[in-house]
Specification:
single chain; alpha/beta; Protocatechuate 4,5-dioxygenase, Chain B; eight-stranded mixed beta sheet; 10 helices; 11 strands; 35% helix; globular; binds 3,4-dihydroxybenzoic acid; binds fe (iii) ion
Length: 280
């Protein structure tokens, strides 16, 4: 049986990949941020997962504003990395697992989550940056990757509560897969940020820390906020944090906190890292 070993929250901003490709990890601006990933990498090395399900939002690469599904899943055996113009270095293609993805899609749809299934999918920084933070891409990525896209870009968006419920359905989907696979789930994006408009640059440290606490111990709190409340507190792009609830919903009710780190700012955002482990 497939089982979920744990979940990770992480930023996905393109500046991280730029810093890595320019070897800036030890520079004063970046050091504390990257140091926050050392325990994550150590945990991943220990649990040695087979598959990472990456919950992220596409930023206009694979889906544009003319057509954008609320929930979509990659159902391919390979994903090409591309990005919509941040100048990221091209990394190795990602190996997928179409059979596993189709199982997830079917199970989610049977649980009333109408996933869009993508047999071809380009992945952008929302997917690439989290993978690159965790593993080296050469000679090949050590895990298979499954893109799980949530629309956080074009309104109307789904709700925080619906993301938590989608995570709970995802857990059932994974756990009903008959093959032995160790699965880790990434909730990416956030934290507070707004990239345009009058409030561009807003960061709300108190709200970010409340979100992290909620993800650990009380996901119902974040799930109970409306999108308007989240955007008021966290900025227009801060709404990305609802994707963390998909990851959290896929874990057990009580989780072990392996690692917790918050750093501000990276680019225009607060960056929160959590490693949450399923106790059994
Ligand atoms: C930044 C944040 C994002 O969520 C994104 O998708 C692109 C850039 C930033 O703060 O630089
Ligand atoms: Fe983003």
């Amino acid at each position: 049986m497939a089982r979920i070993v744990g979940g990770i929250t992480t930023s996905h901003i393109p500046a991280i990949a730029m810093a890595m490709s320019n070897g800036l990890e030890k520079e004063p601006y970046w050091k504390r941020f990257f140091d926050g990933y050392e325990p994550v990498k150590a945990w991943l090395e220990k649990v040695d997962p087979d598959i990472a399900i990456v919950v992220y939002n596409d930023h206009g690469l694979n889906f544009f504003l003319d057509k954008i599904p609320t929930f979509a899943i990659g159902c391919a055996n390979q994903y090409e990395n591309a990005d919509e113009g941040w100048g990221l270095q091209t990394l190795a293609s990602f190996e997928g697992d179409a059979e596993f993805s189709w199982h997830l899609a079917e199970s989610m749809i049977n649980q009333d989550f109408d996933m869009t299934t993508c047999q071809e999918m380009l992945v952008d920084h929302g997917f690439i940056v989290p993978m690159a933070l965790m593993w080296r891409h050469l000679p090949k990525w050590p895990v298979k990757g499954i893109p799980f896209a949530v629309n956080t870009v074009q309104h109307p968006l789904t709700s925080a509560r619906r993301c938590l419920a989608a995570g709970r359905a995802l857990r059932k989907a994974v756990e009903s897969y008959p093959e032995d696979q160790k699965v880790v789930i990434f909730g990416t994006g956030g934290m507070s940020h707004q990239l345009q408009g009058e409030r561009a640059g807003i960061i709300n440290v108190d709200f970010d820390l409340q979100c992290m606490e909620s993800i650990i111990n009380n996901p119902e709190w974040l799930a109970g906020l409306s999108n308007t409340e989240i955007i008021e507190k966290a900025g227009t792009e801060g709404i990305e944090v609802i994707m963390w609830l998909v990851m959290r919903g896929a874990l057990q009710e009580k989780v072990n906190v392996v690692h917790k780190h918050y750093h501000v700012p990276v680019s225009n955002t607060g960056a929160g890292v959590l490693v949450l482990e399923n106790p059994d």
